[in-house]
């Protein structure tokens, strides 16, 4: 599973532009930053908003476009074999407790159905190119929330390079 962060415009929370982007309906003239997103077709499997509201964009049995050029443990193209979860946020900023809670709920549900053996960040599968979810994401908090039911799920920051 690959964890990401996104907000549109960057650092502004609560609007609907991220959802529009993931549905290829973003008005790229609405903000100067959006010009760089023109023609971009991306969507994760899930998006967890600051208030914990969780939206699904892609069926988990299908490939989502979230990781781009990426590699993990020698396997290329993480989009081909991973679930992508975007959190509403910004690299360097912290995330809401309810977002960790929802992420843990999602991970537990997904791990019951798919062979998920690690949770890592976009920054780990595309180092040098991507920096999300960034230093504001607390992997130990996610680990703490999962510990009771999935004590062995490895994740970034705990022996994962
Ligand atoms: Zn990302």
What does this structure look like?
- This protein has 4 helices and 7 strands, in the order βαβββββαβαα.
- It has 161 residues and is of the alpha/beta class.
- The strands form 2 sheets. The protein has a 5-stranded mixed sheet with strand order 3-2-6-1-7.
- A hairpin with a 5-residue loop joins β2 (46-48) and β3.
- The longest helix is centred in the middle third of the chain and has 15 residues, at 97-111.
- It is globular.
- The mean pLDDT is 92.
- Residues 4, 122, 130, 132 line the site of zinc ion.
- The site of zinc ion (ZN) has 4 residues, from loops.
In a few lines, what is going on in this structure?
With about 160 residues, the protein is α/β, with parallel strands linked by helices.
* Succession of helices and strands: EHEEEEEHEHH
Identify the strand order in the major beta sheet.
3-2-6-1-7
| Ligands and ions found | zinc ion
Largest sheet: number of strands, sense, barrel closure: 5 strands, mixed
Properties at a glance:
single chain, 161 residues, five-stranded mixed β-sheet, 4 helices, 7 strands, globular, binds zinc ion
Topology of this structure?
Blueprint: E1 2-6, H1 17-22, E2 46-48, E3 54-56, E4 71-72, E5 75-76, E6 84-88, H2 97-111, E7 120-121, H3 122-125, H4 139-146
Parallel strand pairs: 1-6, 1-7, 2-6
Antiparallel strand pairs: 2-3, 4-5
Helix pairs in contact: 2-4
